[in-house]
Design brief:
single chain, 257 residues, alpha+beta, 9 strands
Length: 257
């Protein structure tokens, strides 16, 4: 059964408004779908670079003396020796591991007179009774060896009011923080940070290093893209069903062929 279009069944002002709205919704959702596909491709390229970096020889303290590029060495393995500056240890709050609340522990590691690595040493559980009580961890004195990866600065959590350290002319700072800004921390401590390092290896010193496995995450973006494309097709399909097919079917002025 076919329909002969008539102006009474279609093309009213209301119909054109709905058509415009449908076109806008479909255009936006299709655009978002392609954006998610682009994000998936971007993540896959980053993941490929990360895997390639992991196969390169580890950077040593001697390499850092040559000021290596951060952008070219992210996810590169690190194998250095240095001394912990335990007085500048920071505990980042609200960092959960397997559903348990705890802290990320960061301590500067001095590898040369003017070169310091900010090392994310591991995770430790918080006291469930006294939430502001700092857990006990070990920080060896003397020269230590640290293995890890060059990573981005720790992710930031939402906070109502930032916690600042005391001025650099005082020997102590507030170790309990929600977030850490590397540039501000450098000004507060007077230290020159050359890289952020994620310490790897088995649990030690009261810290757990069960870091999430590195994945591209591209599949999640593809799933989002599929949802956006499905929404676009749904909006077009609903318009076609209700505003074209049913109108032509139920309008008595429409001539059926």
């Amino acid at each position: 059964m076919r329909f002969r279009f008539t102006s009474q069944a279609l093309f009213s002002r209301h119909w054109w408004v709905l058509l415009t709205a449908t076109a806008i919704v479909a255009g936006i959702t299709v655009r978002l779908g392609y954006w998610q596909l682009g994000r998936a491709q971007f993540k896959e390229s980053l993941y490929s670079i990360e895997q390639a970096q992991a196969k390169l020889p580890p950077l040593t303290a001697q390499d850092f003396s040559n000021s290596p590029s951060r952008s070219e060495n992210l996810q590169r393995r690190i194998d250095v020796q240095g001394q912990w500056l335990h007085q500048w240890t920071v505990y980042l709050e609200n960092r959960a591991l397997q559903g348990k609340p705890g802290f990320w522990v960061l301590t500067p590691l001095q590898i040369a007179p003017n070169q310091v690595l900010l090392v994310q040493r591991g995770w430790v559980a918080r006291d469930l009774v006294q939430s502001d009580k700092l857990p006990t961890i070990e920080t060896p004195s003397g020269v230590v060896r640290v293995e890890g990866r060059w990573v981005h600065a720790p992710s930031k959590m939402m906070e109502l009011s930032p916690t600042h350290a005391k001025p650099s002319d005082t020997p102590r700072l507030n170790p309990l923080r929600q977030n850490i800004d590397i540039e501000e921390f450098s000004q507060e401590t007077g230290l020159t940070f050359v890289a952020n390092v994620l310490q790897t290896g088995s649990a030690s010193e009261g810290l757990i290093r069960d870091w999430p496995a590195s994945l591209s995450g591209a599949d999640k973006n593809r799933a989002y893209a599929l949802q956006w494309f499905a929404l676009a097709f749904l909006s077009i399909g609903l318009f076609g069903w209700f505003q074209i097919y049913l109108k032509l079917k139920n309008d008595p002025s429409t001539t059926k062929l």
